Input
Amino acid sequence: MPMEDEELLLKQLPHSVEAEQAVLGSILIDPRCVPEVIDKLRPDDFYLRQNREIYETVYTMFNYSLTIDPVTVLEQMKQRGCYDANQSRGYILQLMDTTPTAANVKEYIDIMKDKTLLRRVAETAGELTTMIQQHAGTGQDVLEAAEQRIYAIRQGRAAQGLTPLSQVLLDVMERLDELASSANAIPGLSTGLRDLDAAISGLNKSDLILLAARPGMGKTSMALNILLQAGKHSGKNVAFFSLEMSREQLAMRLISAECFVDNKKLVTGRLNEEDWEKVAMAVDSLNRSKILIDDDSTITVADINAKCRRVENLGLIVVDYLQLMQSAGGKSRGGENRQQIVSDISRSLKIMAKELNVPVLCLSQLNRGSESRQDKRPMLSDLRESGAIEQDADIVLFLYREGYYDKDAENPNLAECIVAKNRHGETRTVEMQWLPNYTTFSDIEWQHSEY
Output
């Protein structure tokens, strides 16, 4: 073989001619394997044009429930205009002759999927090299683009690209079917508070949920409640990014919420025998939960995104809290407006929620606006460096406790979770019970003896 031809072959992207021919041969020998192949392979998994055209023909015939055999496939190829009088018939016969058996179609599919993966990685590497050669962005930008593209390959989808509505509708119908089959289920992850779940339909994929309150209202407690619920019952990994509290403090809070031992006792270590038993049971239960904690106080959204991309089976991200985060540009530069930084962060959080396809629960401080009003219940305008935050969030929740301001209130431990914005339904107020000794929230009719 001449040197030039060898070089040309080396420049081809990875593919396996034998595996492509064996898959098509299997389909023609035994059409019963068509559903399995259609489920696993897309036309662009075939690298060679001739093979791709035959597969596209089979794909279309399957969608129209037509009989698939060598004769009908050839006839359909004629109608689609991809029939070659000199080659097609002979090639179809060759495919059937060279395929030993249709029983190994799974293995042939695996080889093809692997080659597709290698091609995607090679394409990404090429795009990144081009970016660098054209000086399109800083090293940080290129790294971000690289992570985003590799993550997209891992998820089995193209980083960009238009999706036909028919494909989206299939996914939606599957989702509806799934919901209908599981009785009284809410679409998203449960918060552990039934009334709140009913109001916001749980925590849904790709949503940015903002939980805001004045200091001391129990934002972190509420977030840990939700984290605990998801970490124990969803079967997925949940990640907590704490910019305020250390890992040890958080673990202490989680133990308190889990075992109902007074928080003060835990902090001072003055525990009796019964308390020790409860703590041991709580630790055992928490050991089995899938909770990941990060207490880096200089973290940015890009860092969170990069860390979470590497987490298998991720179900929820919690960030405590928004105003402590740095913008991607590091320490705020002199001329930069804090409002601008916060709006960049909230936008990035929403983009991250969509990209990772998980709910992101972000805590936020409120400004002092509510303090000067007669009715101190928070409003959307009280969000610190507001505007963009309320625009990006799918759901905005406010915590309010009358007992925080008025010690003589009729029920000092009555808490309100105000759903101030809700893309999935109406806005309303949900009443909850605040349990100060255990720094946790519960449904209004909760009784400790029930547990």
User: Anything to note?
Assistant: Strands lie at 208-213, 237-242, 291-294, 314-320, 360-365, 395-401, 414-422, 428-435, 440-443. The first strand starts at residue 208 and ends at 213.
